[in-house]
Amino acid sequence: MKKGTAVLFAASTAFLLGGLVGHHLAQPQPHEPTEAEAGPILQALVQAARLPIPQDQVHCEAAGPYMDEETGRLPPTRVEHVIASHLLWSLNPRAQPYSSFSCTDDPIKTCTWMFRDSHGEESWQRFLRFQYDSASRHILPASLECIDVP
Fold it and tell me: Residues 127, 132, 137, 142: is their CA dihedral positive or negative?
């Protein structure tokens, strides 16, 4: 490779890497909120318990096998199902629990609540992702998403 081409290649690579790093650093990075920050967010989540998670954003089995007695069908997955699945999981004496909660620092925070369990080679994780409006202190219903990772 000629010296001029090598310099141009090195400069182009540095520019590209610098742009990628700068873009990553400019994105809001999630962090674990303090207790004072998390309290209003979790209260809003509990108040939103009856909200259905948009069907195209349900990638979890939080509703479980519980049929709606009136319709005989599985109900829409709601925030309350994810909360209940966490409580059931945390009461299991064989569980090896781990959970985390993180949010971005924006006025409209993107938050992720994750809990997981591991038994040897078997493990799973459940995520509830949502947006919280700091000004109105409400969860944005269209932002709700539930994801299971086997």
Answer: negative
Amino acid at 90: S
Q: Which residues contact 9 (CB under 8 A, 6 or more apart)?
A: 1
| pLDDT tens readout for residues 20-30 | 334 333 455 67
Task: Evaluate whether 57 touches 79 at the Cβ level (below 8 Å).
Answer: no
- Taking a C-beta distance cutoff of 8 angstroms, is the pair 148, 104 a contact? no
Question: Is 59 or 15 the better-scoring residue by pLDDT?
Answer: 59
User: Rounded to whole angstroms, how far apart are CA atoms 9 and 15?
Assistant: 10
Tokens encoding 84: 């209940």
Written as six digits, the tokens of 124 are 């799973």
SS3 of 103, please?
Answer: strand
Burial letters for 97-119: b for 16+ Cβ neighbours within 10 Å, e otherwise?
A: eeeebbbbeeeebbbbbbbbbee
Q: Are strands 138-149 and 58-59 parallel, antiparallel or unpaired?
A: parallel
- Using left for φ > 0, alpha for ψ between -120 and 50, and beta otherwise, residue 41 falls in alpha
